[in-house]
Design brief:
Layout (H helix, E strand, L loop, with lengths): L14 H6 L10 E7 L6 E3 L7 E3 L1 H13 L4 E6 L17 H12 L4 E6 L13 E2 L2 E2 L1 H18 L3 E4 L6 H11 L8 E6 L6 H7 L19 H13 L3 E5 L5 H10 L4 E5 L1 H12 L5 H15 L3 E4 L2 H9 L1
Parallel strand pairs: 1-3, 1-4, 1-12, 4-5, 5-8, 9-10, 10-11, 11-12
Antiparallel strand pairs: 2-3, 6-7
Length: 324
């Protein structure tokens, strides 16, 4: 069979024909909405580097999550900006910490939305690194106890899932052991399994006020050149007890997402990160691209690569567009 008998354009002629043969289908069920919670009340402050994103106090966060729920979004991912910071990130584990208060408020008001919490020290340490320092470097093993304590405090507050993003070796096993010992065997872990030392995190670091005060995070986040190492990271996190594995960022690492999807029959998430969000927002503001088409194309591409779940700041917008 060859041209002119076989014409691929026949099934592209109308929107309904295109819908009928569409291979990848993006759904609101695929999306997780990240949110930033801050101290105070009545707070909804714009994040300059991420147009359309905000710092929310707990009361306003509940309103935003309720709106997300009403759009059909199944889950939110919380990041906290605490009142105080120290070299150990102690405020991240306090029972009355900012994320813990947010989790309690969300679960008391919105039982039907999945509340996921980021587990890391960077937002809570005075130096901005993701772990405890020893002789000027992040000490992997000293950090594990702090991460597990933070994860436990989130779960005790009511979190449905914890998501360690620190990239310390062994942290999934440590968190799993502590949660199980305390009777939380039902709580899943979504691990940032292959988190690369990317230039696309800049806007997030402003939003989370987590820029390192010295050096960078290449000592513990992955080299962007490596894909085989990413597969080893995913393997280890699964063996340690991760229920969902993640690749972050998404767009520069679509090949990694595809490789992970090909090798592992596990739920796979991808993080459409702040820099990816900000690029589209900036280009749309300039009139250089159609924001709706660009966003849906990007999210569909991430899913086509193999992601089951997509963490994206575009989640509410995408949910509205997918309903139209």
């Amino acid at each position: 069979m060859y041209f002119p008998e076989y014409r691929l354009r026949r099934l592209r002629r109308t929107e309904n024909l295109r819908r009928m043969v569409r291979e990848t289908r993006l759904s609101v069920d695929d999306l997780i909405y990240p949110l930033f919670v801050v101290p105070g009340s009545g707070v909804k402050e714009p994040i300059a580097s991420m147009p359309g994103q905000y710092h929310f106090s707990v009361d306003k966060l509940v309103e935003e999550a309720a709106a997300a729920r009403d759009l059909g979004l199944p889950a939110v991912l919380l990041f906290g900006l605490p009142e105080t910071k120290d070299e150990f990130g102690s405020s991240g584990s306090e029972p009355d910490g900012i994320v813990q208060r947010a989790v309690k408020a969300l679960k008391s008001s919105l039982e039907d939305i999945v509340v996921i919490t980021d587990v890391c020290l960077c937002e809570y340490t005075s130096h901005g690194h993701c772990g405890v320092l020893e002789n000027g470097r992040v000490d992997n093993d000293l950090t594990l106890e702090h991460l597990a304590r933070q994860a436990l405090s989130h779960v005790e507050a009511g979190a449905d899932m914890v998501a360690p993003s620190d990239m310390m070796d062994g942290r999934v096993a440590e968190i799993r052991d502590v949660l199980d010992e305390e009777g939380h065997t039902h709580v899943p872990i979504m691990s940032y399994a292959a988190k690369f030392a990317s230039s696309f995190y800049g806007p997030f670091r402003e939003a989370a006020q987590s820029t390192p005060s010295f050096g960078d995070r290449r000592d513990y986040q992955m080299d962007p050149a490596n894909v085989l190492e990413a597969l080893r990271e995913v393997t280890l996190d699964i063996e340690e007890g991760a229920d969902i594995v993640m690749v972050k960022p998404a767009l520069p690492f679509l090949d990694v997402i595809a490789k992970v999807r090909e090798k592992f029959d596990y739920p796979l998430a991808a993080y459409n990160v702040s820099g990816e969000y900000a690029m589209i927002k900036a280009a749309a503001e300039k009139g250089w691209l159609d924001e709706r088409r660009a966003v849906l194309e990007v999210l569909t591409g991430i899913k086509r690569a193999g992601a089951d779940l997509i963490i994206t700041y575009f989640a509410p917008q995408a949910a509205r567009w997918l309903k139209e």
